[in-house]
Amino acid sequence: MATAIEVSAWFFASSLLLVSASAVDSKNNPADELVAVLNSNRTAHKSSALFDNPGLGCLALEYIKAYQGQCGEVESKKPPESLFADTFAPTCGVQAPTLSQITGRLLGCQGKYMPSSQAFSDMLIHDSKSLEILYDKNHTQVGAAVSGTDGGAPYFWCILFSNGKPNSTFLFEGGVAKTVRPGCFSGNDDDCSSAYRFQHGLWGLVAGILMILFYSFGL
Ligand SMILES: *[C@@H]1O[C@H](CO)[C@@H](O)[C@H](O)[C@H]1NC(C)=O
Ligand SMILES: *[C@@H]1O[C@H](CO)[C@@H](O)[C@H](O)[C@H]1NC(C)=O
Ligand SMILES: *[C@@H]1O[C@H](CO)[C@@H](O)[C@H](O)[C@H]1NC(C)=O
Question: Which domain of life is it from (predicted)?
Fold first, then answer.
């Protein structure tokens, strides 16, 4: 017995799904977006644009994972430097001898997901110290990562800077970037929307089903 109200609930639910899928489709990789926002901000400030190094981007994602989802530790704790060589580089397939100095980091975490441009201006750049890091003349390259813990909240945003030579530092073994999930990192030209699309799509689906139940049973 398909009543008019059930049919309209179906249309409503399917349009919700479409909206949630297309909103995510326009953002292929939030980590690449973060670097784009950062570089346009630097160039508007007459600083140089930084090379987007995928090896460094992957290390930024591992850097996030070192926090094990502990949002509250972002300000107070720093993973030990030794983890770069001991853990992050091997996981990413980055050749240890090509590791170079990290000249700055910007890190943020919160329970709600937000677009990269907003994460940049509302969270990562929040005081004079973070502005100093952003415009530091010693940086030559950058790597960014965006990740949820197990694909969900809390969400982390991380930008690592380095003064190494772009073409000879943070190199992948065999020259090929490893795909490390969950999360997205910059510089690899990869489409990282699928993890998010799944997640948002799933919530859209759950919301849609709840909506249908709501209407069908008049709850
Ligand atoms: C760069 O971003 C910061 C933080 O959002 C903002 O305060 C500043 O005005 C921006 N600078 C330029 C040149 O857009
Ligand atoms: C740039 O690097 C030099 C040498 O490592 C250091 O002395 C200087 O403080 C750095 N500059 C900034 C702005 O961090
Ligand atoms: C890196 O190497 C590529 C190809 O060899 C070259 O086109 C590019 O200009 C180099 N970039 C830098 C920053 O040296």
Answer: Eukaryota
